[in-house]
Write a structure and sequence with these properties.
The chain is of the alpha+beta class. About 25% of the residues lie in helices and about 20% in strands. The protein has one domain: ATP adenylyltransferase (HIT family, subunit A). Strand 12 and strand 13 form a beta hairpin. Helix 3 crosses helix 5 and helix 5 packs across helix 11. The longest helix is centred in the last third of the chain and has 26 residues. The structure holds zinc ion. The site of zinc ion (ZN) has 7 residues, from loops. This is GDP-L-galactose phosphorylase 1. Keywords: Cytoplasm, Guanine-nucleotide releasing factor, Hydrolase, Nucleotide-binding, Nucleotidyltransferase, Transferase. GO terms for molecular function: GDP-D-glucose phosphorylase activity; guanyl-nucleotide exchange factor activity; hydrolase activity; nucleotide binding.
Length: about 450
């Protein structure tokens, strides 16, 4: 897309320091922020997660259960710290007072009335035609949050066992992963996972960060705790790498959707399916063996979408066992003037939660009139067309395939990869060292036909 598309959007405030109201605090810059000015000497709880790939290794799982710190400890840590911040009045409103209902119909969409989340604030211009933009230190980012908004550090354990330290120093040199509150919560326990916060990474998925998010889902060990990701152009509002997560005690409609298996890749153990009869076209990834494999395949997919400038959303569900990826085109349609005013007037941004079936509504009117039909009307504008989805799917599989090919070359193992015949309209079969045909793609790699 060569057009420079811009739309006016009212951003949601996710931190109390986003408004640039300087408070009076002791030392540093005076705001007790999460940056070099205020961090020296600061302490924060540290949760060290089980470093071993826990879904692959039954023994490791058993060890995890036998460990002094029970597996659900992370779950109670998140909620305990979150409630503490609620008592300290750090949230902009009481999310537990927001009305929620399940919309009658076959999907079971959930509607929430949240009038506070988007009120006031001056409009900001966001570019919506770029999925990747460089980090801009002048804009709001998470190093500007108050330290009281940060709940704990989340790091891999050095000895492979879960560990917890109430008062751990902050290792500034190694840029910690942190979990912070979202001061404009969508639901109970709404937090942000910010990988290597001090490195100021832009909103862009990489293999290491995605694996971190998966570990968080596994260790929280609560099926009601989901982790989501919005790319730029798919309703991320801050260009500083972050995942969101919250608790919702009902299934998301997407979790109940039927799927059609597309492929099983030998020696890999990740099942990839396509959603069926769901209003937004998307892919579901399920780990069979290891967390690392699942993580790699989803990361390859996200990287492919980013590099091709395709906005997307990701939902990590089922305690890290299942991941949904949705390429989307709502912002593009919006910028081209293709979305009807009735939908635009609702000001609902179809990010990962809405796409997964949790509709966060801003106007009482829309809440009172919430219906499956209205939800479907919104989601229809989000989904890629069948034709475009097939194109995007082909791009994704091409890059997954290239990545497996590279891994195989590295490990010098023989690999045989088989995709379902309908995948790219051809059967791909590949064995190391014998290339006979090339399929054009964005990467330089060879695919046997
Ligand atoms: Zn500071």
């Amino acid at each position: 897309m060569s057009l420079s598309l811009k739309i006016k959007r009212v951003p949601t405030v996710v931190s109390n320091y986003q408004k640039e109201e300087v408070g009076r605090r002791s030392g540093g810059c005076g705001r007790n922020c999460f940056n070099m000015c205020c961090l020296p000497g600061a302490k924060l709880p540290l949760y060290a997660y089980h470093g071993v790939d826990s879904t692959s290794d039954e023994k490791a799982f058993a060890e995890l259960e036998d460990a002094d710190i029970p597996m659900a400890f992370l779950d109670s840590l998140i909620l305990g710290e979150w409630e503490d911040r609620m008592q300290r009045g750090l949230f902009r409103y009481d999310v537990t007072a927001c009305e929620t209902t399940v919309i009658p119909g076959k999907y079971g969409f959930i509607a929430q009335l949240n009038e506070s989340r988007h009120q006031r604030k001056r409009p900001t211009e966001f570019r919506v035609d770029k999925v990747l933009l460089p980090f801009d230190g002048n804009k709001f980012n998470f190093t500007k949050v108050g330290q009281e908004e940060v709940l704990f550090q989340f790091e891999a354990s050095e000895n492979g066992e879960v560990q917890y330290y109430q008062n751990a120093p902050i290792d500034v040199e190694n840029s910690p992963n942190v979990v912070a509150i979202n001061v404009s919560p969508i639901e109970y326990g709404h937090v942000l996972l910010i990988p290597r916060i001090l490195e100021c990474l832009p909103q862009r998925i990489d293999h290491e960060s995605f694996l971190l998010a998966l570990h968080m889902a596994v260790e929280a060990a609560n099926p009601f705790f989901r982790i989501g990701y919005n790319s730029l152009g798919a309703f991320a509002t801050i260009n500083h790498l972050h995942f969101q997560a919250y608790y919702l005690a009902v299934p998301f409609p997407v979790e109940k959707a039927s799927t059609k298996k597309i492929s099983i890749i030998d020696n890999c153990g990740v099942k990839i399916s396509e959603l069926r009869n769901y209003p937004v076209r998307g892919l579901a990834f399920e780990g069979r063996n290891t967390l690392q494999e699942l993580s790699n395949m989803v990361s390859d997919t996200c990287v492919c979408l980013q590099e091709n400038n395709i906005p997307y959303n990701v939902l990590i569900s089922d305690c890290g066992k299942r991941v949904f990826v949705f390429p989307q085109c709502y912002a593009e349609k919006q910028a081209m003037g293709e979305v009807g005013t009735e939908l635009l007037d609702t000001q609902v941004n179809p990010a990962v939660w809405e796409i997964s079936g949790h509709m966060v509504l801003k106007r009482k009117k829309d809440y009172e009139e919430a219906s499956e039909e209205n939800a479907l009307r919104l989601l229809a504008e989000v989904s890629l067309s069948e034709e475009r989805f097939q194109e995007v799917k082909a791009l994704i599989f091409h890059s997954i395939f290239c990545s497996l090919n590279e891994e195989a070359l590295d490990s010098e193992e023989d690999v045989e990869v088989q995709f379902a015949e309908d995948l790219l309209g051809m059967k791909l079969k590949q064995q190391q060292g014998s290339h006979s045909a090339m399929v054009a793609g964005t990467h330089d790699c060879l695919v046997m036909q």
